[in-house]
Amino acid sequence: INAEYGKEDPRQSAPTMTALVLRIKFPPTYPLIYKTLRIDSNLTVAEAIKFIGETLNVACGGNIGLYLPDEKRWLDDNAPLSTYDNLQEEEYIEYRDRDQPADDKRGGGGGGTGCCTVV
Predict the structure, then answer these.
(1) 10 Å Cβ neighbour count for 77?
(2) Phi and psi at residue 10, in whole multiples of 5°?
(3) How would you list the strands of the sheet with 73-74, edge to edge?
(4) What angle do CA 91, 92, 96 make, to 5 degrees?
């Protein structure tokens, strides 16, 4: 038994190495539709928004937020991503303006799950 570890689980000593792989959906006005990124789970939501914006060269200021469409709720800007247990299991999260109407109120195909209507 190594006394150096004591009661502490050594797996908990590496939070800086924890990354989330998230599929991010962007608004129709952006040059991207979806992008999958590895994001440090210790970043706050606000820091993650800045990281996404700088990494992908998209707007990250103003009223941009991260939204969980399945739960119909916004992530708290001051909360670390790691506080959201189910984030990794989400099909995608939305990177969008907080003033933008919800997907179910906009037109489009696929019952709100798709981005486009093919005619």
Answers:
(1) 15
(2) -60, -20
(3) 34-40, 19-25, 93-97, 64-68, 73-74
(4) 160
Say yes or no to pLDDT of 54 above 80. Answer: yes
Is the pLDDT confidence value at 33 over 70? yes
pLDDT at 6 over 60: no
CA dist 10 and 18 (Å) reads: 14
In sequence order, what are the residues at sequence separation of 6 or more whose Cβ sits closer than 8 angstroms to the Cβ of residue 40? 16, 18, 19, 20, 51, 81
pLDDT at 113 > cutoff 50: no
pTM: 0.70
Q: Which helix (H) or strand (E) holds 51?
A: helix 45-56
Q: Which two tokens stand for residue 63?
A: 């009223």
